[in-house]
Amino acid sequence: MSWTIKLEDIDDLARGSALLGTGGGGDPYIGGLLAKEALRRHGDVTVVSLDEVPDDAVIACISMLGAPTVMVEKLPSLDEIMSPVQELSEHYGRPITHLMCIEVGGVNSTIPIAAAAAMNLPLLDADGMGRAFPELQMVLPTLYGVSASPLAYADEKGNIGVLRTINNAWGERIIRVAAVEMGCSIMLSAFQMNGVMARKALVPDSLTLCAALGRSIVEARVAKTDPVDGLVETLGGRSLFGGKVVDVERATTAGFARGRATIIEGDSTFTLSFQNEHLMAELNGVVLTTTPDLIMVLDFESGEPITTEGLRYGQRVRVISAPADERWHSPAAIEMVGPRYFGYDTEPTRFDGSVRAGVPIADSDGIA
Amino acid sequence: MSWTIKLEDIDDLARGSALLGTGGGGDPYIGGLLAKEALRRHGDVTVVSLDEVPDDAVIACISMLGAPTVMVEKLPSLDEIMSPVQELSEHYGRPITHLMCIEVGGVNSTIPIAAAAAMNLPLLDADGMGRAFPELQMVLPTLYGVSASPLAYADEKGNIGVLRTINNAWGERIIRVAAVEMGCSIMLSAFQMNGVMARKALVPDSLTLCAALGRSIVEARVAKTDPVDGLVETLGGRSLFGGKVVDVERATTAGFARGRATIIEGDSTFTLSFQNEHLMAELNGVVLTTTPDLIMVLDFESGEPITTEGLRYGQRVRVISAPADERWHSPAAIEMVGPRYFGYDTEPTRFDGSVRAGVPIADSDGIA
Questions:
Q1: Do A164 and B159 touch (CB under 8 A)?
Q2: Nearest to residue B49, comparing CAs of B189, B198, B191, B192?
Q3: Which CATH code is given to the segment(s) B3-206?
Q4: Chain A interface residues facing chain B, Cβ-Cβ under 8 Å?
Q5: Rounded Cα–Cα distance for residues B216 and A133 (Å)
Q6: pLDDT of residue B332
Q7: Where is the S-Me-THD-like C-terminal domain (chains A, B) (predicted)?
Q8: What span, in angstroms and rounded, lies between the C-alpha atoms of A287 and B4?
């Protein structure tokens, strides 16, 4: 069922996206500004569910790639957001008919809204992850054999490129160093696919979910009920910890914002390890949850999601976990986004603390 | 006047190119292998002088970009050499009609020969420098406002890209990090221009000169005369030093082969500083010659040119200097390729030790 994103929906969408962005995917305030500006100038955006998208649609993502820490100082213009999509269309020789979000995040869910408004294109109610991950190849379409190439990218200075790589991991390698050189943040359009593949490879209804989550946080605040309880229930997750941030180490290296935050409450010490996104939660040295399941940090009182770059000494926060799309637990996915890929020597631990392995994506559905 | 490059010309051409490559531009043995393979399989190459090239010709360079040290282990295939030219043609929407050498060097003069043979295209008797320089923007066409963009690049794995940048220095920045990530050596096709611009901006007759220089080294050897004396005379240069290499420091960093060589004879100490190419020659701490003039190192007896990566402890060598194309002494050129750009705190010192400044390129001819 199609629906319309209006100006007044943006705050909820950005808030809910930032939550599912698990600390990454960019600042929802920045993302919201961009989307609102686009909607004010170009009108509402039509959102199309996966079951409505035509089989022969030409779909591509538009997203920011780089360290989201940088984006706060380098707000992209609508021209910068549109140019890689236009470049991709020209390179592909057919116009893009639908835009999609490659991931869920405060910026990477709202940039496609801005682009859809400015280009008058429908936006899919779906995304490539159901959360955010830091590297280009880390999307469910990779597991279905969808190539990120040709990928088009642009910076705010007017530099623009198209790249075709032999696999998505090579796309990540080359585009990452280019992004670092171009100022640590670029706009990227890639993962061109048709409607048939989109129905297989994407996570459905993610914009609808983001809007609902964002709205529920505000509604709970108005109703003076606990905003976090509702989120945990909606997501089928659990509460991991609540306490005060006493240390945040971080460094923007190799195009990523990497680091570790320490949160305490009484005698308990809780640590969050992140690389753009929160990837591992430990309580007193015991692993509670790791990537690919979702680890989300919220303001203790207001329930506002806090991005990894928004974490500050002294904040009182709550941390919750929730299950990722089950396909992220398939063996090929764990190899790509499991804790060991990121250098954490631990089993993939689910949102509920279990270590149950996932099953391969069926041959008929995907390649892994 | 057009002429033909045949199999038996390659050794002379590669040797002469390596000489004018001033230590950079790649190993003439490797370059020669590539060109010979192409000529054996595809036949001779027609070389066209600048005064013959049609005004509306579509000319582009094909070259290796990266650390030439790496190329010894990573010999490109003909497919890899052709693919960026084909990509550039497609992106530009018109077929490339003529190939050119962007610089003179053991590999970067012979790769265009290989490409011209394999693609059955004429090759210009010209190049963009009259020597070799390490960075993309360091070509005379930059001084005439010719954009390197669109630039197409490819590696041996099959990764391929097209990039358009706001100026040639940005092209260098982005393509350099991509090249490092892609294995420190890529093939590049860029600097598309027409015949009118080629006549203005390129150095004429450089392949003819390379062939003559290469031939004279061999002829002198056969005639048992001094090969170096003849080169100095032909180039209008001077002999700087002769002695034994006693130290070579080098590192392949940020995609370049940087270093310093020390050569002694009696009480005299001569040092060569290089970054892919020889950029400064000093005798007992006194600067004799710097970039942009040519500093060339040859084997003491045979007169074979020695590249910076070929320099070894114990070699007996002779070092000569020669004037660069006078446009390299214009103020804008000195800013781009003078010794201070490379971090050597000294005046640009000409081949004969003088420090006479050059004049701006006339407005009617160029932009600088």
A1: yes
A2: B198
A3: 3.40.1610.10
A4: 91, 157-166, 170, 173-174, 176-178, 180-182
A5: 61
A6: 95
A7: 167-347
A8: 71
Min mean pLDDT across A24-28, A242-246, A272-276 is at A24-28
Q: What is the DSSP string of B56-108?
A: T--EEEEEEEE-HHHHTTSPPPHHHHHHHHHHHHHHHTS---EEEESS-STTT
Interface touch A174/B182, C-beta < 8 Å: yes
Asked if pLDDT for residue A270 goes beyond 70, the answer is: yes
**Residue the block writes with tokens 């408004």:** A117
Pairing of strands A59-66, A98-101: parallel
Please write the tens of the pLDDT for every residue from B195-217: 999 999 999 999 999 999 999 99
- CA distances B215 to A284, A323, B210, B219, Å, are 76, 73, 8, 6
pLDDT by residue (tens digit) across A154-187? 999 999 999 999 999 999 999 999 999 998 789 9
Size of interface A-B (CB pairs under 8 A): 56
3-class DSSP state of B220: helix
State the architecture of A224-337 in CATH terms.
Answer: Beta Barrel (2.40)
- Do the Cβ atoms of A181 and B177 come within 8 Å? yes
Sketch the domain layout of chain B as residue ranges: 3-206
Asked if pLDDT for residue A368 goes beyond 50, the answer is no
Tokens, residue A73: 């100082």
Tell if the CB–CB gap between A174 and B170 is shorter than 8 Å: no
Q: A245: pLDDT confidence band, cut at 50, 70 and 90?
A: very high
Predicted local confidence at residue B114, as pLDDT: 96
